[in-house]
Amino acid sequence: MVQDFYESGQKRSDAMLLTRESLYDFRAHPQNGVLTTYAINGNILYQQNFRNGKMVSASY
User: Fold this and answer.
1) Which domain holds residue 52?
2) Contact 15/37 with Cβ under 8 angstroms?
3) Domain for residue 4, yes or no?
4) What is the tally of structural domains in the chain?
5) pLDDT tens-digit readout, 9-32
6) Domain of life, per the record (predicted)?
């Protein structure tokens, strides 16, 4: 389980479950589920839905 934060402490993404192999990948994403990324002001930048490691939909 990982979650990214800005230096200010504001969250940059929601927590997500990653495989051990993807921990060192800068572009890591969940195998299944939603990746939500936030702007520094707290607004949602985008949401991406993944299934079996592939993005199936996104909203920006």
Assistant:
1) 20-59
2) no
3) no
4) 1
5) 999 999 998 888 888 887 888 999
6) Bacteria
Alpha carbons 18 and 36: distance in angstroms, whole number: 14
Q: CA-to-CA distance for 36 and 22, rounded, in angstroms? A: 17
42 domain-assigned = yes
> Tokens at residue 42, please?
């707290």
Q: Which residues contact 27 (CB under 8 A, 6 or more apart)?
A: none
Q: Report the SS3 class of residue 21.
A: helix
What is the pLDDT, as a whole number, of residue 22? Answer: 84
What Rg value do the Cα atoms of the chain yield, rounded? 11
